[in-house]
Amino acid sequence: MTSTESSLFTTVGPHSDPDDSEVELDCRFNEEFKFILLPVSYAVIFVLGLGLNALTIWLFLFRLRPWDATATYIFHLALSDTLYVLSLPTLVYYYAARNHWPFDTGLCKFIRFLFYWNLYCSVLFLTCISVHRYLGICHPLRVVRWVRPRLAGLLCLAVWLVVAGCLVPNLFFVTTSPKGDIILCHDTTRPEEFDHYVHFSSAIMGLLFGVPFLVTLVCYGLMARCLYRPLPGAAQSSSRLRSLRTIAVVLTVFAVCFVPFHITRTVYYMARLLEADCWVLNIVNMVYKVTRPLASANSCLDPVLYLLTGDKYRRQLRQLCRGGRPRLPTAASSLALVSLPEDSSCRWTATPQDGGLGR
Fold first, then answer.
1. What are the start and end residues of every segment in region (Disordered) (predicted)?
2. Average pLDDT, integer, range 91-106
3. Could you give the residue ranges of the DSSP H alpha helices within the chain?
4. Contact indicator for 20, 6 with CB cutoff of 8 Å
5. For residue 296, which of 76, 252, 344, 358 sits 20 to 30 Å off, Cα-Cα?
6. Would you say 312 and 326 are in contact if contact means Cβ atoms under 8 Å apart?
């Protein structure tokens, strides 16, 4: 789910990366692994991601209506992942052809834009799910009117538009350029504008990843504290387990896909900007390129969230695999959540506005 960069330095020698530009002529990198790792990993992610997310969208459209707020967020998350994986065949060809882009500049800009649009929309949709679960578990009686499906739909629309608006400058930075017999599709920008791109990229990362990630950590920390307190009633165990599974899956997606990508990308950009020593550039360059497929893998890991946290989703999926006839749509069932009692910080209750996916 990521892209090739236009570096500030050129690697020379028989195995140099043609996507780099000149700073240190004596710095050589062997990047043959990239022309195998990226096409293969993107091809696998395309097949798995398209199959899993297309099935999810079909189930949500035809077998899981009406939606609750959580289902609304998950549908938009699956839609974002599907739009991204549809762009992967062009990147598979690009890296298999050893960084040669046979298409026009407009498609290059769109493919690079689509990567970051999906990346940050996914981050924000996961954050919406986290905040929604936190409010439902810790403050359900206070926020009943704020967790309705219609409001969730409007919030998802706002996420699409805000992320797209923030990434508009990326369309101007990204470009193609000839280099010998090949045409490069740069992920960043021209070398002379790279310092401006780093400032833009850092601001976007802080706004669309740093802040949502901190919000998610705070929400799940408060949720975990509430869920681990002793509560009466045997019927509470399934709802508590479902919420804990949500915490585990979302944090796993962040830890595996988003955090390594943003850390290594930041170090990589800084090393290029500061013209670090060749051995430093070599190590950072390799680590960053190895972590790039992990960012794409969130398109395959997100469906695990639906499978582990949605009882209705699992039932419909089992029924589909068995060839059963679809059931008539029913109103969203209630989800046991945690609310604030009069004499303690939280207790179990039910809110009819939520839980269609959870049950």
1. 1-20
2. 93
3. 34-62, 69-85, 88-96, 105-138, 149-166, 168-173, 194-205, 211-227, 236-253, 259-273, 278-296, 298-309, 311-321
4. yes
5. 358
6. no
